Sequence to fold (276 residues):
Amino acid sequence: MVLSWLIGRYPSSRQLNEVGFWPPPSHPKAFGSAPGRDCERLVLLSSASRIGGYVPHPRFSMKEGVAHCTRETVIVTPQNEPRYNERIRAREVRLIGPDGSQVGIRPTADALVLARELDLDLVEVAPLANPPVCRIMDYGKFRYEEAQKAKESRKKTTHVTVKEVKFRPKIGKGDFDTKVRHMRDFLEDGHKVKVTLQFRGREVAHPELGARILDAALEQLGPLAKVETQARLEGRNMTMVLSPDKKPAKKNEKEQSGSTPQVAPAEPTTESQDSQ
Fold:
């Protein structure tokens, strides 16, 4: 919990981040340094207020030593989004128009009036500047575009996962072919494959049976897979890790197979005329 002492005005975000509370004990306006004032403001910022919401303004009486809460409220914005409209605390801002033109330093109230006349929002884009830089824009559209950009960047990011395929030394041919087909699909999608061969009972005394199964799987996969971790015996399991040997070309192969082959034009034929 962060304890903020507010004397006459609210602290800026820079002051809260630097000292944690306002004013600091060394400040000349801290409690006890102004005996002529009967009432000072005390705001308790909890973790809930850090993520947004309404924070009450208790008033502290220096004579009685009791905090009295009033109905006055202040809106605290989350840290991951900029302040906009009435949430902007600065008295004056450096204003940027909706077309990107520099308007200049204006009072915050005048900038809000100008934004409302254009049916837009006043958004604080550089809160650490002096004075803060604000731009007139459509805040809802701005947040939507930022969400779409983040979504597109997540799509472009390739997530490589490790898929596990389990075998048994006495596996049937049908099950073996099915598991190898799954391994091929995983490798074509760009994933790594962990091959686990499980031994039971006295089978662990014959690791050559497991090596024979792994060699057969590698032979069927061909150049699609390369061995990243050689086969090794861990307890009753023999494991091996495979990785794709080249970039996934599954879609390109489908496109090439789906395209119609080009047929060369037939050579013209001449018919012999019968002599009459």
In short: Residues 162-255 form a domain with the Translation Initiation Factor IF3 fold (CATH 3.30.110.10). The chain has three domains: 2-76, 85-154, 162-255. Residues 1-10, 13-77, 248-252, 257-276 have pLDDT under 50 and may be disordered.
